[in-house]
Amino acid sequence: MLLIRFTLTLSFLFFFAQSSTLFAQEDVEGSGDHPLVERAAGSYIFTYQTSEYERISIPTGPASTDGFESTETLEGEYFQYTYRFDDEDVSTMRVKASYLQSLESRGFEIIFKGSGSELGYRGGVGLLIQGDFNRPNRRCCNAGRNSDIRYLSAKSADGNILISMATFRAQLGMGTVALVDVVVSDQMDTTMDHRPLTSAEMGTGLEEHGRVAIQNILFETDSDEILPESAEALETIAELMNERPELNLLVVGHTDNTGSFDYNLRLSLDRATSVSDYLYNELGISEDRLQSAGAGMMAPITTNRTEDGRALNRRVELVEMR
After folding, report:
1. What is the pLDDT of residue 226?
2. What share of the chain is helix, strand, coil (3-state, %, to 5)?
3. CA triplet 311, 315, 316: central angle to 5 degrees?
4. How far apart are CA 227 and CA 216, in angstroms?
5. Distances from the Cα of 198 to the Cαs of 118, 129, 190, in angstroms?
6. Contact, 240 vs 199, CB < 8 A?
7. Structural domains in the chain, sorted by start
8. Interior angle at CA 2, CA 70 and CA 186, nearest 5
9. 23-32, long-range: CB within 8 Å, 24+ apart, which pairs?
């Protein structure tokens, strides 16, 4: 989950500051702002966590009866911030407007901005207690019925950075807070450019992320029949498994979003099964070291709105099993 560039007004330039040395309160130990996301002047980092690799979805549209009309998902390094303010009475409208202008000035596309009923029941409390907004040890603060919640989501021009910001009046006298999430795409270049991976590169992907996408296993259209040009990638997988006899793999098929959900789920499983069968029947990998699964269209690595994106989403992934 779009570019507007303009000069910040003097008042908002005053509101934003680059250095934490201006703040009366100190940032939590070990924390620091993301270099592309300015904090609001007068704020300090109250909680901070980061994860090397996660798959994160954020709301990118108004609330609906089933949650939100749209969300956007990105995989990569994940940064989680809670900011509090020296002036606990600073308005949430001002915080939201400041982040909005700062992100736009840095070339980010604002995907969605909303407040009150646009964010769901009780003026947006649902936004803050669902999914990624309620991770253990993640957030410090609770929102109530009159928390004046405001929200925005944005992404970089190249689509490799996804940002959300929710600001509200916290309960228990904590004043205004801002929750900022940043996801930075961390996909292997060799995965994205369709260059065949070596066994060492596959092994690195499994070691660092627990999975690796193989883009060079190709199939007949609407079929689980493996094309001959897939032989090199399949032989490399077998080479990896022969080098690492303790390695067991979950073979997961993925599709683009063309066609129905059920059709793609079935096709992805059939394709994964074809890969496992090939490794077993043609390349001698023990059957009990392989398991097949299908994810259909549920886990895209990029947009399905372009042919290039759909081609990347049609893939087989290897997931390490114990």
Report:
1. 96
2. 30, 30, 35
3. 170
4. 10
5. 48, 43, 10
6. yes
7. 10-185 (3.40.1000), 189-321 (3.30.1330.60)
8. 70
9. 23/86, 24/86, 25/84, 25/86, 31/81
- Residues 164-179: pLDDT tens digits? 999 999 888 889 999 9
- Percent of the chain past pLDDT 90, that is, above it, reads 47
Q: Tell me what the mean pLDDT of segment 151-170 comes to.
A: 90
CA distance 143 to 137: 16
Query: Helix 199-209 vs helix 231-243: angle between axes, to the nearest 10 degrees?
Result: 70
pLDDT (tens digit per residue) in 52-80: 778 888 889 888 777 788 889 888 888 89
Q: CB within 8 A of 200, min separation 6: which ones?
A: none
**Strands 63-64 and 67-68, how do they pair?**
antiparallel
Q: How many CB atoms lie within 10 A of CB 179?
A: 25
Instruction: Name the pTM for this structure.
Output: 0.51
3-state secondary structure of 40: strand
Question: What mean pLDDT do residues 147-153 have?
Answer: 90
| Between 133 and 266, the higher pLDDT residue | 266
Number of residues written out for the chain: 322
Return all residues near 131 (Cβ < 8 A) that are at least 6 apart: 57
Question: Hunting for tokens 């099964």 — which residue is that?
Answer: 273
Using the Cα atoms of residue 31, residue 207, residue 210 and residue 136 in order, give the sign of their dihedral. negative
